[in-house]
Each structure stands twice: as C-alpha cells, then as structure tokens.
Amino acid sequence: MPAVRGRVRPAGAQLRGHDAAQREGGCAVSRLSAAATAVAVVAAAVLAGAPAAQAQAQEQAQAQDGERVVIADGHVDLGPRVVNGKWVVQLRDDSGAEPVWREPGDVVLHVPDSVRTAVPDDPAYAFLGAAGSQVWVLPQAQGDGVVWPGWNTQDPSIAGLGGREVDWRLHGVTGPGEFQLFLNGNFGEPEVVFSGAKGFPQETGVELGTHAHGNWVFSAPGSYALDVEMAASDGRADRAVLRVHVGAGDPNEAFTVSVPAGETPSSNENAGEEQNQAPWPWIAGAAVVLLAIGFLVRRKVVGSRG
After folding, report:
1. pLDDT tens for the 306 residues of the chain, in order
2. Sign of CA dihedral 75, 287, 173, 154
3. What DSSP element (H or E) covers 46?
4. Cα distance from N-terminal residue to C-terminal residue, the chain
5. Contact partners, residue 45, CB within 8 Å, separation at least 6
6. Residue 97 to residues 50, 74, 76, 93, Cα–Cα distance (Å)
7. Do residues 115 and 138 touch, judged by C-beta distance below 8 A?
8. H or E, element range at 23
9. What ranges make up the beta strands (E) of the chain?
10. Are 115 and 146 in contact (CB under 8 A)?
11. Which residues cross the membrane (predicted)?
12. pTM value?
C-alpha cells in the first residue's frame, strides 16, 4: 500500500464568516464552514495565549524518567527537542501549574466517554466509518474537561538546525480499533493527516515554527499505542510510543500496551450507553481556528515502504 505524505505549514489564509452554520447548530460537520468573525477572534485569542508563546523560554522543566502520569484534561503537544545534544521526541505537558516536558512512554492520554459521537452521514467523513457508527473524538478545538493534544516544532533548541521541515511519521498503531487524525481544511472539508486504515509507515511534513491541533479519532474503547517518529533534515530522528486510553476502565492499563514485536521504537538514531457531549460542533468551530492560524495540509502520495 502507498504511504501518505503531507505538509502542515503556515499559509496566511483569510477568515470566512458564516451565519447559516450557527442557525443549523445540529447539522453535520460537512455543512459547517467557518464560524462567525467574533468566534474567530475569541479562538485566535485562545491560541495566542496558549503555551506556544511560552515555548520560546530557554529554560524549561523536564520530568524525571519513569514519572508516569495520566492526562485527562488540559493542553499537551508532541514535538522534537535537542536535550543534552540528542534529538528527542517529547510531550510538552501544560495541564499543570507549570509546563513540563515528559517522555511519551511515561504518559497516557485519557479519552472520556463524553466525547463519543456518531459519524456524520456525509461521504466526506466515510473514512471514519459507517454513518451513525460510534467514534471517540478529541477535537481540534479545546473543550472543557478534555485533553487537548497537538504538535509543535517551536522549541528553541531545534531552531537554526537547517531545513524547513520536521518529518513526522506514524509507523503503526496497536489497539482495539482504528485511529485517525485529521484537520478541518478549507470550507470544513477534512484533511487526513494519518489513517489507521492505510498502510504504514505514513509521513507528513511539519514546518519549523508550527503549533497545530487536529481531531484525534478512535473507533473503539480500550488502550492504544501509537508508534511515532520525528526526524530532522540532517537525518537525526527519534521514535516513541504515544499511549491513549479510550473510554471507561483504568487508563493505567495503557502502559502495558506496546507496538508489535520487532517494531519497538529505538531512542535517538544518531463506554457508557448515552453520549454526554457531541464533539462535532467543536470540530466545526475548529475550522475557524485552523484558518485563523493559517494551517493547511496538502496531500501527495509517495512510494510505499511496506
């Protein structure tokens, strides 16, 4: 199967207001474009005040290896850094009083049942499953009481290393269902970044200086392990396991989930019955955030490696 490569880059897109989508608050995501300008201003302000600006600080806290945590609320970013001269992939945890960088293997992101929702009856979202089937969505826009994962290439330690992009790869997913990561593109059309329904590895290019969020979708409850890698243009790379627990049960069980045998990442190569919340409105509103900060994804096919 062909692997997929994309590009996430600043694009300076124009804001597009809408009134009809607000009048159709319960309609499918595909019929929602951008939100009203007032909402865009608020969304942009939220992102402007988010920890992205703090990433410029030269001194940042580093958690001790083996200090395991479950994060169920607040902002986190996956991103590369240079620590003690080594290129590493870490998670920036902003869920506490002070930001701290953690090893991905020491973290489980907990996805609550409150974000379970139905796949829209729209061909644009067929990649998520059959219309009406249940999925769990960590949305592109921040929501109360829900972890908000993103990715960034803003750490000062990687500035000036040469090249314009960081290659972000997904080597595989272990779990009870499928994983999808997509962005709301122009006019609300989804732009798939990674899809568990396709072959591995998959790859996307993330420009230096990027801070972005997407819709993280899981098709079944349980524990998942995502085998991810981020690589610099000079060939330095690091792989890590990002663990996620979806729905009820003990999220600490996800620490026991690993990637398939023979695919273990190496360090440094140099379910309730009723739905409590519906994330789709958040996703629709996130289109405004996407346009406000100017992130687009352009897809292209490259040769398969497996």
Report:
1. 434 455 544 333 222 222 233 233 333 333 323 333 333 333 344 344 444 434 444 457 887 777 899 999 999 999 999 999 999 999 999 999 899 999 999 999 999 999 999 999 999 999 999 999 999 999 999 999 999 999 999 999 998 887 899 999 999 999 999 999 999 977 778 999 999 999 999 999 999 999 999 999 999 999 999 999 999 999 999 999 999 999 999 999 999 998 876 555 654 555 333 334 455 544 555 444 443 333 333 333 333 333
2. negative
3. helix 37-49
4. 7
5. none
6. 13, 11, 13, 10
7. yes
8. helix 20-23
9. 3-10, 61-62, 69-71, 74-83, 86-93, 100-102, 107-111, 116-118, 134-138, 147-152, 165-174, 179-184, 190-195, 202-207, 211-213, 215-218, 222-231, 237-246, 295-302
10. yes
11. 280-297
12. 0.73
List Cβ neighbours of 139 (8 Å cut-off, separation of 6 or more). Answer: 115, 146, 215, 279, 282, 283, 286
Half-sphere exposure of 251 (CA within 13 A, CB side): 18
With vertex at residue 148, the alpha carbon angle to CA 228 and CA 191, rounded to the nearest 5 degrees, is 65
Placement of tokens 């273990």 in the chain: 264
Residues paired with residue 190 on neighbouring β-strands, in sequence order:
184
Please check whether residue 79 is in contact with residue 54, taking contact to mean a CB–CB distance below 8 angstroms: no
